[in-house]
Amino acid sequence: MTRVARRLPASAAPAALVVAAAFACACGGDGTASSHVDSGESTGSGSTDASGSSSTADDSGGDDAAAARVRYCGDAAEQVEARIDDALASLSTADKVAMMHGASLSVQDGAWRVEGNAALGLPGFKMLDGPRGVGSGSGETATVFPVAIMRGASWDPELEREVGAAIGREIRSVGADTLLAPTLNILRHPRWGRAQESYGEDTVHIGAMGVAFIEGAQSERVIATAKHFAANSIEDTRFVVDVGIDERTLREIYLPHFFRAVHDANVGAVMSAYNQVNGQYCDVNAVLLREILGEDWQFQGFVMSDWLKGTHGDVEAVRAGLDVEMPRGMHFSKLADAVADGELDEAELDESLRGTLRAQLCFELDSDPAVPDAAARETEAHLELAERVAERGMVLLRNEGVLPLDRAAIGEIVVAGPLADLPNIGDEGSSAVEPAEVVTALEGIVDRAGAVTITPLAAGLPTPADEAIIAAADVVVVVLGLTKDDEGEGVIAAGDRSSLAVPAAQLELLAAITAIGTPTVVVLEGGGPLLTAGWIEDTDAVLMAWYPGLRGGYAIADILFGDAEPSGRLPASVPVAEADLPEFDNVSESVAYGYLHGYRHLDANGTAAAFPFGYGLGYTTFSYDAIALDTDELEQGGSFTASIEITNTGSRTGIETVQLYVAVPDSSFVRAPRDLRAFGQLELAPGASGTLDLTVAARDLAVWDEHADGWVIEPTTYTVQVGSSSATLPLTASFTAQP
Ligand code: BGC
After folding, report:
1. Which residue of 238, 241, 304, 306 sits with most ligand 1 atoms within 8 Å of its CB, as the best mutation to test the pocket?
2. How far is ligand 1, taken at its centre, from the CA of residue 271, in Å?
3. How far is CA 394 from the centre of its chain?
4. Choosing from 306, 486, 558, 700, which is the catalytic residue?
5. For residue 609, what are the CA distances in angstroms to 367, 545, 622?
6. Predicted model pTM
7. I need a surface site. Which of 154, 206, 409, 427 has the fewest CB within 10 A?
8. Quick count: other Cβ atoms within 10 Å of Cβ 201?
9. Residue 334: how many CB atoms within 10 A of its CB?
């Protein structure tokens, strides 16, 4: 077994992704992906030498503090440090402390404020949520994008970059400069009330999507915030729960996507979580904030607390690595006295404030302040993007041939279900966004129906008259699932889900409808997986539509009528039963997070999912034809590239998400049977074949060895498994890692 140095030189710089190809790893690492098309039509111009890459590798990415500052700030780094030195030399202790906490409990003029210092030209911050658009706290309407889990289902980081940029533009258009997003917590269990804010259950996938969002937002000159650091995935006990977690699990499963946010995307800010990790609240958790984020990763921005119940100390918090208390100075207003009493050194205060000022100046909040501009919100381009993303995130779970609906062959569609005409855009907690209008599923279907008659059904179980209408129709579309009343943020909204089941009354309605015998299509909404066993067999098709944003109704209709191709793939496993997943304990004040969850847990137990991670149908089909590795012996510090050939074997153009997993059958560590290590997409015309290159760095195969206190790459055989989901992996190849 080879121990990998914890600080390796940084290598690849971020590069543009072309047709697809996202990549990440358990701990950072080189990665590239590219694609080319052998025949037929495809996206791109037939041949691309695309490259997407992520960075190294170990916990710091090889940076020392100076290099990390250049990475964070660019060419202005030195100048900014000099300005910070000058500011710190002339600010009084009281002035400094005023810049280390929020200014008031509630938003002022549409944002949460952190004071600056006008005399020194230091701007402070204007902060606003959030993860699916401009937070409703702004008092303004804004574009509501599909929730993050639906965007995760697109498996398309380039699309997510566009969403990040659009939200960034809208955030600036309300005069704010700091975006309280993305939520980078892993979906450990789908009953988590904020499942919808997560990209899904896998760290590599979250890392790729999160990096893209942050880069998009920050390209519009707002500071993005990676939240909530760390292990935050229960709502009902979020203010108290102590998450017990071993270091290997923390480093390999719960943190790598945060590392990528810091190292690959240069995220401006990090928000500490409400919960405790291993007996310490996150805002006073020196292991998380100072050691891992500060020392190992060399994060150069600032750490803010989560709101109100998110702080537990003053001097202790500063020493642990918390820089800004939000939304006001409950604890931090005492810091000036602590300095006066000799309890805290002025130098410690300065060190903390340094990251805060660096963020303000490196992001040029002083010279390029956000200017309110109503015309920049809900623009046609943003509405179109929201619709396109919704189309790309829909996951077709079942299709017995009824979809796509053929307008030429269908006379009448009945639309039923309690969510059919409900604006259903997600949680009412901090991620809430207020749009000018929402297109419901029914409105979308009516709009796109052409000459087909659309007959909406009144709420409640079908009456005999309704039954006759359904019997006479060609198809019935039933819109079911969850709403903001079923799941959301803890305390201020609905909290955790009480079950993974579709509400019983809805299943009763569905049973009454399917008994009639008219082909039945279910559109399922909600922020995460719902159980399908026991009812899905009676349906003809099921489309997972999540919370699809303000134009979601159009996207639903476009998929149903086949005007758009279903290309979404599940970013989280749908189990047969809740008992198949690790326990979800949102009652105890202390819980243990094990190494396995999601597909890794199901695979380890040999339990089949109802619908596995990565799964999704299209209206076309793909064959996986060949895999070739560029090496069968991987050197430490090297990388391998898998070239994967697939063919569109159906009759429509479609996008395939190619997933690369790695298994280590002879490992001396406890491992999941396989871990996602890379993915990418190819869009191919009927009959066309294409080759996608996915590159994985040796470093991405490392495990955290608690005894060695570092990453190790086992010199053993690694099996590469490639396919369309974690359970369908027809292509395999293997290589050996060198000692
Ligand atoms: C949430 C954060 C949010 C903050 C401000 C907290 O309750 O956990 O995600 O950014 O409120 O709205």
Report:
1. 306
2. 9
3. 16
4. 306
5. 53, 19, 22
6. 0.94
7. 409
8. 29
9. 17
Residue 114 CA to its chain's centroid (Å)? 27
More confident of the two residues 50 and 385: 385
Residues within a 6 A CB radius of ligand 1? 129, 180, 227, 306-307, 430
Rounded to an integer, what distance in angstroms lies between the CA atom of residue 75 and that of residue 364?
13
Q: What percent of the chain has pLDDT over 90?
A: 91
Produce one character per residue of 418-436: b if its CB has 16 or more CB atoms within 10 Å, e if not.
bbbbebbbbbbbbbbbbbe
* Alpha carbon nearest to ligand 1 atom 9, residue: 430
Please list the alpha-helical segments (H only) found in 515-637. 552-560, 598-604
Q: Let me know how long the chain is.
A: 739
- 306 catalytic? Reply is yes
Residue 58's pLDDT band (cuts 50, 70, 90):
low
Task: Determine the Cα–Cα distance for residues 701 and 663; give it in Å rounded to an integer.
Answer: 10
pLDDT per residue as tens digits for the range 93-152: 999 999 999 999 999 999 999 999 999 999 999 999 999 999 999 999 999 999 999 999
At 662 the three-state DSSP class reads strand
- Which of 732, 728, 429, 684 lies closest to 570, judged by CA? 728
User: Which residue's CA is minimally distant from atom 8 of ligand 1?
Assistant: 306
How many whole angstroms separate alpha carbon 574 and alpha carbon 544? 11
Q: What is the pLDDT of residue 722?
A: 98
Q: Which residues contact 293 (CB under 8 A, 6 or more apart)?
A: 229, 258, 262, 270, 299, 303, 321
pLDDT of residue 62: 61
- Per-residue pLDDT of 427-475, as tens digits, reads 999 999 999 999 999 999 999 999 999 999 999 999 999 999 999 999 9
Distance 315 CA to ligand 1 centre (A): 23
pLDDT at position 278 over 80:
yes
> Which atom belonging to ligand 1 lies closest to the Cα atom of 274?
8
The answer to whether 178 touches 377, Cβ cutoff 8 Å, is: no
Contacts of 189 (CB under 8 A, 6+ apart): 233, 581, 582, 584, 597
Instruction: Give how far Cα 148 sits from Cα of 188, 273, 425, Å.
Output: 15, 19, 12
Kindly give the distance from the C-alpha atom of residue 129 to the centroid of ligand 1, in angstroms, as a whole number: 7
